[in-house]
Amino acid sequence: MMMKPTFQNRTLFVLLLFLVACTSGYTQEAKVFVTDTGTKYHRENCKYLRYSRSELTIKSAKEKGYEACMVCKPSPSVNSSDTTSQTTQKIQTTTTTKPTSSPGDSRRCSATTQAGAQCKRMTKSSSGKCWQHE
Q: How far is CA 13 from each of CA 1, 53, 92, rounded to the nearest angstrom?
């Protein structure tokens, strides 16, 4: 006899999946990869594993003297809030602001040539057109 899934059963199943997903972070038994000639260990999708790879655990890689790759950062996360703050800090340090342009700055002419292409000349005119197209 098959039971119909109830709201409580579905909720319990979703909660169970959520707990499994939250607790499945990196551990000392997590798999990492090393190259034949390198001194770093990497995540599976790191660009430095293009030509060779050997699978190890983080624990055994550290015991053999390998260090974590600075590109893919495969070290185990102790606390998810640390990872979040590191990500936020990285975003803040890499974000650059584009300087705002003032009316005196030069820009590309907005006119169209006889051939139908946009003019390649630069202009400082407030009309947005170069000397030839004004």
A: 20, 37, 38
